[in-house]
Model the fold of this input.
Amino acid sequence: MIIPNDLLYTESHEWIKREGENIRVGITDHAQSELTDVVYVELPKLERQVNAKEPIAVVESVKAASDIYAPVKGTVVEANKALEADPGLINREPYGQGWIFVLKIENADDLKNLKDASAYKTQIG
Amino acid sequence: LRKVTLSLVSVVTEAAARKTPLYDEHVRLGAKMVPFAGWLMPVQYTSIVEEHQAVRNNVGVFDISHMGQFIVAAPPSSQKIGGEGAAATWLNRMLTNNVDKLDVSMGQYTFLLNDRGGIIDDLIVYRIDEQKYLLVVNAARADEDFAWLQNHLEESLSLTSRSADFGAAAIQGPQTMALFHALFGKDIELPARNHIADLSFNGTNVSVARTGYTGEDGIEVFFPANDAVKFWSALLERGKPLGIKPCGLGARDTLRLEMCYPLNGSDLSPERNPIEAGLGFFVDLGKPDFVGRDALLKTKEFGPLERLVPFRMKEKGPPPRPHYAVFRNGERIGEVTSGTVSPSLNWGIGMAYVSSAHAKIGAEIDIEIRGQKFSATVEKKPLYKKPAP
Done:
């Protein structure tokens, strides 16, 4: 299972990449492998304001629908439209073209509550 | 990701679930194991879509050892002169279909109903001897079925559960016949559709029934639990040149839903009867008496309030799921009981109970998904038809 060292993680299996004032968010390799066969992604609306741990997107596999949560408080500034035509990107490139949305974060200190790669690795065992 | 967290919770409850004789094989093959009907079963090995396609295009194998097997038998002396046997007479009172239609070695799909006509279980009954029947029932209902039958049993008959003694595998797909011959020998004849035969596999007696739950040609093989691993390994080995894949419950569900085969617990329940479910074909109302008959006659006379209908989404969008509400012109008319993205069609499909007025082929309905309505059309069965070769 790939867990890149330069990313942050949530307990609910989202990854977070810091990009200045923004964070890019997707689901981890572990999460996509548990879901398999992603068939539909409901993206968040742009400019939506969200709190940490608020459901913000939905990833649907053949078997089930799963909520994706905002890792920290912020505003949606980008959503990955490519997933509408090709939701399988989440399976093929979970850390790359399979990203889901970008949040403009309110307070960079909030990121301190997230897990680093080794803590996430411990969590999934 | 809520569901992923849930799947970790399921590991905690693992100890409470039963394991089939093939459990270690599934783990070895890298299956994701989930609790299902009190058993720990593979939901998928690699991917639901890949496993689904293996069954549609080549051949797939499912562990169905969790299903229940009961034997109903009567001593030969209880055979009435010029009439059907005591076992048949009793089964005809317990089940909806007519067992008198069964010659020895034939099986039929049928229902076990409660007094209100509600479905306790859907099952297959095989006549395996003049006065001996095999009932293959759903895992989730096996205990309840057995208790119900035991309570209604006639003294002259014996009812035995053989569920723990047998393992079982469903071999499904267009390459079934080739795999059958590779396993049992090229001169051995495949049983006819809905028939069962006892065959020898490497010195072990197994029962092979030509049936399935996928819409493809297929067989279900019952073998002694002790020989389960031997049989499973042999069929994966000999199926390799045919493109065999072990398949989990995920693919089993998408395959059956494309064919509109009902799943007990989702599409069928003690609150629903076979007529509402559109399965009246498997009910013989001409039989003088069977449990639930009065209720079904009433449903037939007045027409059911709701009917189970297959539907297809109009546009590519979020897949329908069980319990989503169904609307028509803004009015709520029913609820989805099964739904998924069909791997064969790459399109949202499902089944729903809707008020009878709207249960017509071609009717336009809306499925509410996370507060938003998506159009769908009531279709005829099955939702997927194989393209002509």
In short: The interface with chain A takes residues 1-5, 7, 32, 43-44, 46-49, 250, 253-254, 317-319, 321, 340-341, 343, 370 of chain B (CB under 8 Å). The two ends of chain B are 42 Å apart (CA to CA). The longest helix of chain B spans residues 228-239. The first strand of chain B starts at residue 18 and ends at 19.
